[in-house]
Amino acid sequence: MTSRLPILLAAAAALLVPRAEASTADAEARLQSAVGKVLAVAEKSSTPEKLAGDLRPILLDYISFDAMTRRAIGPGWRQFTPEQQKRAVQLFTTLIIRTYSDKFTPGEHPVVKYKAPVTPAPGRVEVPTSLLYNGSSYEVTYRLELENGWQITDVLLEGVSLIANYRSQFDAQFKKDGAKAVLAALAQAENK
Hints:
The protein is α+β, with helices and mostly antiparallel strands.
């Protein structure tokens, strides 16, 4: 039995490789589908407000706003009540969708080139892209996680994590006055 153990381990590992490759391909395909839908909607929307409304159902389908909000708030998240957590997710979702839609210029169409995806851990895929938009080039990496299908959980623009950027802001607010301060900041951002 001991002599067959390496063979069994090798066979088990071989079975896992195609599954990991398929998962990576599935994650990349899902991201490309999301980007394609967003670009199609962005071309037809005339104002940032209309675009935000049109993008909302697409982004809700492809982005895990629960995970993004939880990570953006950081360790203080555990001290939020369930009602505060729900409100934080709602406000953060609106903030991200509005911020994202404000980046588009009507009539401009970005060119997106996908690079080889990376699997930093099981159930996680990073898909780096190059984006040419309004004459400028950007490096954008999408982080996806397998939770009820592949969902975007972070975006890195030129190496800077969206989640880490918000976490530094929310952490300072949380330390100052707890969940109320974070919710007030999110509500203020929603009303801008």
